[in-house]
Amino acid sequence: SNCSDYVPVWDSLDCSGDEVIECGGEESITIKSTNVTFITMELMDRNVTELVAKHLASQACRQQVLGDTANTNFLLVSAYLVFLMQAGFAMLCAGSVRSKNTMNILLKNVLDACVGSICFYLLGYGFAYQGSGAANPFIGTSNFALNQLTPSTGEVAITDWAGFLFQWAFAAAAATIVSGSVAERTSFIAYLLYSMFLTSFVYPVVVHWVWDSAGWISAFAGEPLFGSGMIDFAGSGVVHMTGGFAGFWGAYMVGPRVGRFDSDGKPTDMPGHSATLVVLGTFL
Fold this sequence. Notes:
Blueprint: E1 19-22, E2 28-31, H1 46-96, H2 102-128, E3 149-150, E4 155-156, H3 161-181, H4 188-211, H5 236-254, H6 275-283
Antiparallel strand pairs: 1-2, 3-4
């Protein structure tokens, strides 16, 4: 029989691009199958129907895999770029302090990344993103240590490892902002405790408020605050404002550096040892 004998009926089709399927004789059916969302067909020949349906399903599957791969790669590249800020903060802070304190400030930046990764994995990510538990507008209550991993597929139910890496890079950046605020006057133990507290609780709570759909000021909530909620796609408030407030209170609590003011209370110059590092860190 000829393809002209068959009359396809499309319920809903979102498509672009043509796919040609041979079905016998000298004619063929031309099916638009790119980005298919849903399709049903009524054909006189059931074999042709099954052929077309399998072909369209295969095309849709390939497109889904391609889209997931592209999204994952985009998240990974974005995470690497965000984490590059660690190098920028390290250079900026190291160049701003006296040479004798360079190693101290660099080790603190390394400490932020290492300790922050453990704390954010065990507690912070669960506090930041709700997971499948009961919705809480203040803080997340599930998905600690990414425990909502699906054993059968190896996929994280709520997000994925690429998304976690992206969020961890932001958490580490928020913690590192404080490093320069308390430079040259904070012990390693005190800074370690601060870094653990900020990456496991303080920063994740702010993330939950704004970026999680259950957050009380999130623009993605069912009923956003004041009808719009808070939109912060790049993290200027969630990341940098949180780190800035933490740095402000840290500097207030530890006070000025020794020798920063003379006996009369007048400030004295304490220039950094490397303008080159400051400039390079600023660009990064």
